Amino acid sequence: MTKKRAFREFISYLVVIIIAVAFSLTIRIFVFEPFVVPTPSMEPALLVEDKVIVNKLSYRFAQVKRGDLVVFRSPTGEGKDLVKRAVGLPGEEITLTLDGEVYVNGHLLYEEYVQDSNTVYNDDSIILSDDEFFVLGDNRNNSLDSRFFGPVDQKEIFGKLVIIYWPPHRIKKV
Length: 174
Known about the structure:
Blueprint: H1 3-30, E1 32-36, E2 51-55, H2 58-61, E3 69-73, E4 81-88, E5 93-96, E6 102-104, E7 107-108, E8 124-127, E9 132-136, H3 146-149, E10 152-153, E11 157-166, E12 172-173
Antiparallel strand pairs: 1-2, 2-11, 3-4, 3-11, 4-9, 5-6, 5-8, 6-7, 9-10, 11-12
């Protein structure tokens, strides 16, 4: 093999590697991103150390629905990304009662995903603006959520949690 041919072959492999890296980075930055669940705030749906995939295109083509596991930038300014369940949608009135119940526009919200039925809220109501969401962790007694930092602006929500991929016995679509 001549030096010229070997050099061309090296360049062709290098180009393929560069294209593959650029493609994978583009997918990771703009489409799907892996995350590790850091806290028990979403138990039992998500456990600490679960590895999950977030679809970053979801809400470019569809609206957030009640019950979605949304990923957003923490409003507390600590530079973290959080995952919580969307409970209140834009324009709705959310009422939390001393009995631990959540009402949406005066109707009791059935939440089969809530871990602890002994949750007690401050007796409080909030009306969401046209670009705000009220988010709560499933493990209400161990979650920093909209009860503490207020509603989340739509522009801060950047993805929908779609799958748990690790550990293997927990692989499932969420």
